[in-house]
Request: fold
Amino acid sequence: MTHTDRQVVLGDRGRIVLPADLRSELGLEQGSRLILRHEVDGSLSLRPFRAVADAGRGMLSDLAPEGNSMVDELLVERRREAELEAKD
Reply:
C-alpha cells in the first residue's frame, strides 16, 4: 500500500468523506468502526478498529506461565466458587 497525502474537506456537522478508492483499498464500508486519535502535535490519526484490536492481541501472552491456559484456570476458579455458594 502506498502512503499518500489526500486532501479532504470538513463538511456538514463535522463530517469527513474518505475517498472511494481509499475506502475500497482499506476494505472500509458503511458502518466500519474507526479509531480517531488526536496527536500531541495537533495531527489526527485514523485507524480501522480491527487493526487496533489485532495489534493488541497477544500483548499479555508472556505473562501466563507456558502451558497454562488462563481460561481453564478461570473456569476452575469459577466452578470452585459456585460449589462454595451452593453449600451456603
